[in-house]
Amino acid sequence: MHQVHLLEIEFENDGLKQVYTPVLIQDEHEMILIDCGYPNSGDHLEKAAEQVGVSLSGLTRVIVTHHDLDHAGALSGLKKKYPHIEIIAHELERPYIEGKKKSLRLEQAEAMLAVIKNEEKADAERFISFLQTYEPATVDRTVVAGERLPWCGGIEIVHTPGHMPGHISLYLLFSKTMIAGDAVVVEHGRLNIANPQYTLDMEEALRSVRRLLDYDIDHLICYHGGTFHGDIKNALKQLIQDDAL
């Protein structure tokens, strides 16, 4: 039996609350976590898994959609606690996850620091310090666009760059579910481009939305906002049309 569990996690940093949604998929042999949250999120993940009747002790793999801190920050801690797990990411994301290249988000934040107003610099510096808390983790396996992983009824890798160059979404063949990561986000019931101010290439991000339209999607899960309830195809088309106006 194939199962999909949404792990809703609330995180507070610097007085700001965020809710994000890692996903657990499992079958008789595998339990795979899609994204894992900020550094030191292990306890939050454990509790969220328990709430859906699952123990992370059975975790076999973690697939990371991209190297942003809220998606990959807990990787190192998970690997220390469960050293048998396999960490998987797109080949373009590997050097950032492993710490061999500086985070693109950190580069962006440092570049912004030089041009923002003085009264905004304290917040920007705190954000930079927070990004620097990331602890690298070894990527055990890299994937590429169109690759199909054999677990949990089949998982197709959908390369959806824009937010980050190596960003991936995951299409679960057995349930026609698209796990979109930060390719799109649900805000107040509407589908939007995730965090435009942090999207490194908006044109590429919109091409990625068009790429999602190539799939027959019955369920769309966003890291920020959870499951989208509505006409998925029309909502994706509307995003593209809105940008063209």
Automatic annotation (TrEMBL):
Q: Which Gene3D superfamilies match?
A: Ribonuclease Z/Hydroxyacylglutathione hydrolase-like
What's the short name of a Pfam family annotated to this entry? Lactamase_B
The UniProt GO MF terms for this protein read: hydrolase activity
InterPro entries on file? Metallo-B-lactamas, NDM-1-like, RibonucZ/Hydroxyglut_hydro
Which residues belong to any copy of the Metallo-beta-lactamase domain?
19-224
Positions in coiled-coil regions: none
UniProt keyword annotations, A-Z:
Hydrolase
Q: Which PANTHER family match?
A: METALLO-BETA-LACTAMASE DOMAIN-CONTAINING (PTHR42951), METALLO-BETA-LACTAMASE SUPERFAMILY PROTEIN (PTHR42951:SF15)
What is the recorded name of this protein? MBL fold metallo-hydrolase
Species in which this protein is naturally found: Thermoactinomyces daqus
The organism's lineage is: Bacteria, Bacillati, Bacillota, Bacilli, Bacillales
